[in-house]
Design brief:
The structure is a homodimer of 309-residue chains.
Chain A: E1 5-12, E2 16-25, E3 28-38, H1 45-65, E4 73-78, E5 81-83, E6 88-91, E7 98-100, H2 102-110, E8 114-118, H3 119-130, E9 139-143, E10 151-154, E11 157-159, H4 188-191, H5 193-204, H6 211-219, H7 223-247, E12 251-255, H8 263-276, E13 284-287, H9 294-308
Parallel strand pairs in A: 1-4, 4-8, 9-12, 12-13
Antiparallel strand pairs in A: 1-2, 2-3, 5-6, 6-7, 9-10, 10-11
Helix pairs in contact in A: 1-2, 3-9, 5-6, 5-7, 6-7, 7-8
Protein name (chains A, B): Glucokinase
Family (chains A, B): Belongs to the ROK (NagC/XylR) family.
InterPro entries (chains A, B): ATPase_NBD (IPR043129), ROK (IPR000600)
């Protein structure tokens, strides 16, 4: 049996940083202590990246001081394009950095081995090892929030594609609406939580800021909400169809804020996908099991893997 | 250094069966003797599958008799949906079988270990080990002929997806034309060699049966040929864009009959893809190196791997 390791994990988000002291093995991990603080912003991308490094180091020191066991390693995950092999934050549209050597700097500052990776892939790793995708060889784990991305478990391993994999939210599914990314017809322009709220607001003039409010309206029979919801389901089904056509996953795990809608999402999504699928393998649709702690748990697993190896 | 193995490889196609005695190691393989014969057809799918087994056994005996070395293993690849792990031909639209236990039957009849797999993935394996995708971690190998499929090398390994992976020819790229598969907008409806020939014939009334004739007409400045060619390039670029968005491959290797057009295909395809790409990693576009022997070489490598392991 693998020995229990104590590691600190930090999931750097666009708004918040979630950190935790985690106790675990490569197949079991749980939070001992959790912390949350705002993600620092500075004048430009490199300055923001340095401020993030400072904030991560502070969180590590804080959790280390609170731990009854020596902290053996640190796992840190960030959004955007991430080069896991070289430990670089290649690009973040939101936080502004380019080719920033997070792993090296964090290693120097914390004095323990640092694993560095991508927030969505780390969440997928956690769902694969500990959550809704456990035991599967081929699965797509899709958090749906402000945007939509996917972690791809293929042949039992996370696929990175040099940091460029999993942009399922930016596949063109034919609706033609422009996306912030510069393309048209992107899945996330209709199906992200943010898009659902925005489209309902635009359609009705009632300002809502979360998809949960639209879900409520759908349950109440609001016809505008039903149209927006159906269009989101259609875009999502077409995106999943592309993943099924190219990759043949056994299951698609839906996470993020939108998955909190539960059957209101799953039932029509399954129906639409069944209508669209012809020869592809129909993936099982599941809800994520780990909630918004998945990225942090995944970062912890990466750190545990590194010290165990 | 790995010892040279002698194996027999058979690539069962919809029309022809290509067979060869191959001498090689996991990283080097070459044809000693080659054979080709028509693929047998019988009254129904199971009967066709049994006839194919008989034909494979005959080819193995013939090549074994011609070999100066004992044949240690056999590799056989077939089209359609293939379950590599269980050695089943799950489904072939063209040849009609369902869940046919090829590996088991061939093992009993030949008396040597049999590796069984998928024609396109085997071709991809050969291009990855010996050809145009050598040394790459992440690559898409696309043979373009009657249809379009793709072998996906991800993290250095062929991805199977339970036999369902790689149907890049059936991704909807928005042109709306119906496909034989039952969907609309499929890449291969515009970009396969067969589609290019068919669409040029339909447009001009001049019957051509191969894309090579349309390529000739493009070179000669025929405006109808140019339209059909451009539409094919656009569909293909959009299909590759989807693969880039989801998988982030370093390179896309184009094979099959259409790739014989060389720069007439590559140059406008690269240009169109550069226009479409926004944040995705631009894959290098390469021509396949192994021609139509790739599937057979891949089958041989599978057999060599199995006896070497």
């Amino acid at each position: 049996m693998a020995r229990t390791r104590y590691v600190v994990a930090v999931d750097v988000g666009g708004t918040d940083m979630k950190a935790a002291l985690v106790a675990g093995t490569p197949t079991e991990a749980s939070f001992v202590t959790q912390r949350r603080r705002g993600t620092p912003r500075a004048s430009d991308g490199p300055a923001t990246a340095h401020a993030v490094v400072d904030a991560v180091v502070e969180l590590v020191e804080e959790l280390r001081a609170a731990s009854d066991h020596p902290v053996e390693a640190v796992g840190v995950v960030v959004p955007g394009v991430v080069d896991d092999d070289r430990g670089l934050g290649v690009f973040s549209a939101n936080l502004g950095w380019r080719d920033f050597p997070f792993r090296m700097l964090l290693g120097e500052r914390t004095g323990v081995p640092v694993s560095f990776g991508h927030d969505v892939r780390a969440g997928g790793l956690a769902e694969h090892r500990l959550g809704a995708a456990r035991g599967l060889t081929d699965a797509v784990i899709m958090p749906i929030g402000t945007g939509i991305a996917a972690a791809l478990v293929l042949g039992g391993r996370l696929h990175s594609g040099g940091g460029y994999s999993g942009e399922l939210g930016h596949v063109d599914v034919g609706h033609g609406d422009p996306c912030g990314c510069g393309q048209r017809g992107c899945v996330e322009t209709r199906a992200s939580s943010a898009a659902i709220a925005r489209r309902y607001s635009a359609r009705t003039g009632k300002q809502v800021d979360r998809a949960a409010a639209v879900a409520e309206a759908v349950r109440a029979g609001d016809p505008d909400a039903v149209v927006v919801w159906d269009e989101a389901v259609d875009a999502l089904a077409r995106g999943i169809l592309v993943a099924a056509t190219l990759l043949g996953p056994q299951a698609v795990v839906l996470g993020g804020g939108l998955a909190l809608a539960g059957d209101l999402l799953l039932v029509p999504l399954r129906k639409r996908l069944e209508e669209l699928i012809v020869f592809q393998r129909m993936p099982e649709l599941r809800l994520a099991a780990l909630g918004d702690g998945a990225g942090c748990l995944g970062a912890a697993l990466m750190a545990i893997d590194a010290v165990g190896a």
